[in-house]
Amino acid sequence: MTEKLVVIGAGMASGRVIEHLIEADPDAYDITLFNAEPRGNYNRIMLSPVLSGDKTYADIVTHDDAWYAAHGVTCRFGEHVVRIDREAKLVEGQNGPVPYDKLIIATGSAPFIIPVPGKDLPGVITYRDLDDTNAMIEAAGKGGKAVVIGGGLLGLEAAAGLSERGMDVTVLHLMGHLMERQLDEAAGYLLRKDLEGRGITIRTQASTKAILGEDRAEAVLLESGETLGADLVVMAVGIRPETRLATDAGLEVARGIEVNAQMQSLTDPDIYAVGECVEFDGHLFGLVAPLYDQARVLARSLLGEPDAFVVRDTATKLKVTGCDLFSAGDFAEGEGREDIVLRDPARGIYKRLVIEDDRLVGAVMYGDTADGNWFFGLIKDETGIEEMRETLIFGPAFQGEGAADPLSAVAALPPEAEICGCNGICKGTIVQAIEGGAADLGAIRAQTKASASCGTCTGLVEQLLQVTLGDEFQMPTAQPVCGCTDLCHEDVRRLIKSRELKSQPAVWQELGWKTPNGCHVCRPAVNFYLLADWPLEHQDDPQSRFVNERKHANIQKDGTFSVVPRMWGGITNPRELRAIADAAEKYDVPTVKVTGGQRIDLLGVKGEDLPAIWADLNRAGLVSGHAYSKGLRTVKTCVGTDHCRFGTQDSTGLGIRLEQILWGSWTPHKVKLAVSGCPRNCAEATCKDVGIVCVDSGYQVGVGGAAGMDVKETERLADVATEQEAIDVTVAFVQLYRENARYLDRPYKWLAKVGLDWVRARVADPGERARLIEAFELSQSIYRKDPWAEHAKKADRFRPLADLTLEAAE
Amino acid sequence: MSWIDIGHIDEVPLHGARIVKTRAGCIALFRTAEAEVFAAADACPHKGGPLSEGIVHGQSVTCPLHNWVFDLNTGQAQGEDGRIATYPLRLEEGRILLDGAALDKRRAA
Question: How high does pLDDT run on average in chain A?
Fold first, then answer.
């Protein structure tokens, strides 16, 4: 007897069910197929090639009209199903009801629309079906700007396709790196780099606030307040199971329609569900492999044959030409796991395997995914890997290769890459000199001047010698930054500049870091180098900072903190003093101390009180004194011509102006300044990092003083006539120090390495001085702001995440 | 086991930490990766430094006071004779769950 089967939704899963049924027993069911789209089943996975223009709709059709006709499937395409009447066993379409004996719900998924103003404007589209794809192709025909919201699989495929079609594309992604569910940071970084290489702009940690426009989408407004022009906005933030019909019909629905292992609704045994609308054992499904498994099981269940659906691991690949990535299994969660990491920066390759109990549980690969399926097999089969562990990461064809060459970063530089910034010498010139007979550092310095000035590129030049000469060159041993890398600080700095590395994952990957994300020694250094060299591109990472800089307060031995408000040039007034006194009383501050830098220190403040005391001080106009930072600390002054009978210049005013220009800037180590109004030097300027002594004829600017573990008098950087020149020379010096010194070297230590003459020449050169000042100003456009005010807004982050002490005792 | 919902994973900064107050002192939650969190005692056995203020790297944390490094899987200090207690933790759809029974055991101990 032929039973009536109604199928709602003509997608890849239900299409496969119908194929199985017809193949096994063409007469078992009389099939009616509803589809809201005005067409039958096509290969949805291939929409990306259609978008990019590599394929057409005709290429990706799975079942055409002739196929449905030949197999006697009644098609109701372009018709929405209004409701399911379970009592009468009827499916009501817009054009009339159809009775069923068995029903399959295959309504798939709906795109998730983020609830922001403007989401319904014309020009805002999702990326789900052929109509969406055609709408994007049409929009791309007009050119202009596209903003894709969502940096997951779907969003990136849309972005690549639109870019291919000539649009200027920006991807906005809420998380810190692309495809964070499938990729770790390092692989996410490589993917980003590849996409940026094709001209796509990627913005991570970008939260959309609204879509702006009068009659249609014109721009996207970010939470940060920034606006991005957009002729087309594609929303691809995710999907959710489409379950409305099932819910209305009273079927059990959690996130998806709940089914048993035979794909049967838990509520009604005559109703089945398959595909993305299904929830089984707490799992949802989005990739095609499990959907095809479901389709097989469902077809067999309808034919009365035993089978059961089992959830398996799935692997992900991105369908963007030229981006070779693979991810499978679980590479993030859980304790007791170990990583095996292989990085080959020269070839842009990254592989990471995650092992637990001698089994491979996860794999992420970028750049070379040839072994992906082999690793995927090991994960699925839970193969014991104990014996091949040492060589596992090299794949099935391993023949005893060594680890990545630590010199490969230098070897990979193109000939035109600049090695010596002082003298503008590129790699090609140096290699030529080596090949022409220069066999050591001295010879290269004599012939090319490379590394002959400030010397910070010495390590790189030595590595070039080694790469070019091989074993003939004996490498002097430089102290590496830490156990995470073989490179020394100077080389890391130089490579960050020359290879334009603008994020921490970029440094870890391109410079072959041996750990997943550094350690407490290298992370603060790398974070500083990045923000000093790429102030606009690199986002300061608080988690790569020592606690004092992260908390914007100095931690004390008992875990409390000290709070020091800024007093510009050491000048204060009754209103500020009252606010400080009030705060000290209100927060029970046990110790109030006057510091050596002409500030007032409140010691013993509890961590969770910090945002509140800052907010109180802010209200009185007081800002952070940065008494905790590797940055500008204090500018100490004397009263100068304002009051003193010996004063020659306005030392107080100059100190205040310097502090207002320099405050908030990060430096390799702390920087303290002083300005004295006459050579009697009451502000003790001659033992500071920068100390200015005013004289009748102008200003003596000294640098490199110290009064700590070492005591050292400043050396004269310049004598200048005007206050503006004194400011310019100071700013240029601080910026030169920021650009070149090794992390945690105070200026006097850095000067001992590079020599005062070199620094003097740079600061004296008018062009270089202007460049330094401009670079400093650019950086300060980001960092010249009060961190207390910013942090006071995020007060909840300073409190415990949860308090379990309040629970009733059992 | 009795799992207590502590909060959402996004309330703990990536490569950072937050603390949970309990009757027997603070427990620190360390977020080592996008979807990986460990729970361990907040106090360093050396001089009591707050580990939740340390730098989180790989699956380890460095104490902010004297740079002792602890493996968060085992609680063992690297190259030092010291260990911190670690606690079972589960992640479910982004929610962080701690085992109440294990916390109670700590209180009794």
Answer: 88
Q: Flag whether pLDDT at A46 surpasses 70.
A: yes
What is the reported pLDDT for A402?
A: 35
Which among A658, A705, A662 has a CA at the least distance from the CA of A681? Answer: A705
Question: Could you report the per-residue pLDDT of B6-57, keeping only the tens digit for each?
Answer: 999 999 999 999 999 988 889 999 999 988 999 999 999 988 889 999 999 9
Cβ <8 Å between B33 and A332: yes
Count the neighbouring beta carbons within 10 Å of the beta carbon of residue A38: 10
Whether pLDDT at A332 is above 70: no
pLDDT higher than 80, residue A347: no
CATH number for the domain spanning B27: value is 2.102.10.10
Give the model's pLDDT for residue A589.
95
- Mind telling me how many Å the CA of B22 is from chain A's nearest CA? 5
Task: Measure the CA–CA gap between A645 and A579, rounded to whole angstroms.
Answer: 32
A801/B7 touch (CB, cutoff 8 Å), yes or no? yes
**Min Cα–Cα distance to chain A from B8, Å:** 9
Chain pair A-B, CB pairs under 8 angstroms: 107
The tokens for A479 are 């102290």
> Is the predicted pLDDT of residue A796 greater than 50, yes or no?
yes
Q: Which two tokens stand for residue A378?
A: 């090991």
Work out whether strand B95-99 and strand B89-92 pair parallel, antiparallel, or are unpaired.
Answer: antiparallel
pLDDT digits (tens, 9 = 90+) for A418-453: 777 667 788 888 999 988 888 888 788 778 878 766
Task: Kindly determine whether residue A546 and residue B56, on different chains, have CB atoms separated by under 8 Å.
Answer: no
What does the pLDDT read at residue A445?
A: 79
Torsion of CA B34, B40, B45, B47, to 10 degrees: 60
Q: Does A519 touch chain B (CB under 8 A)?
A: yes
pLDDT, tens digit, 9 for 90 and up, residues A681-693? 999 999 999 999 9
> Which residues does chain A have within 8 Å of residue B12's beta carbon, measured at their own beta carbons?
801
Cβ-nearest to A805 among B15, B22, B60: B22
Most distant pair of Cα atoms in chain B: their distance: 37
Q: Rounded distance, CA A584 to CA A605, Å?
A: 9
Domain count for chain B: 1
Over range B86-101, report the average pLDDT: 91
Residues B49, B70: Cα–Cα separation, whole Å: 12
CA distance A703 to A718: 9
The predicted pLDDT at position A322 comes to: 62
The residue of B4, B5, B6, B14 whose CB has the most chain A CBs within 10 angstroms, and thus the best one to mutate to test that interface, is B14
| Alpha-carbon gap, residue A340 to A150, rounded angstroms | 30
Residue for token pair 């399911």: A84
Angle at A525 between CA A500 and CA A551, to 5 degrees: 120
Provide the pLDDT for residue A197: 87
The pLDDT score that the predictor gives to residue A401 is 36
DSSP bridge partners of B19: B28
Residue with tokens 């460095």: B62
Residue contact A804–B91, C-beta within 8 A: no
What's A262's DSSP letter?
A: T
A455 and A420 in contact (C-beta within 8 Å)? no
Q: Residue B59: which domain range?
A: 3-108
CB contact under 8 A, A804 and B21: yes
Ordered by where they begin, the domains of chain A are: 3-109+241-302 (3.50.50.60), 124-237 (3.50.50.60), 324-391 (3.30.390.30), 408-540 (no CATH), 547-629 (3.90.480.10), 632-788 (3.30.413.10)
Q: Give me the phi and psi of A177, to 5 degrees please.
A: -145, 160
> Hey, CA dihedral for A75, A80, A85, A86, is it positive or negative?
positive
Q: Distance between CA atoms of B107 and B109, rounded to whole angstroms? A: 6
Residues in chain A with CB shorter than 8 Å from the CB of B14 are 176, 543
Q: Is A238 on the interface with B (CB under 8 A)?
A: no
Distance, CA of A569 to CA of A145 (rounded, Å): 49
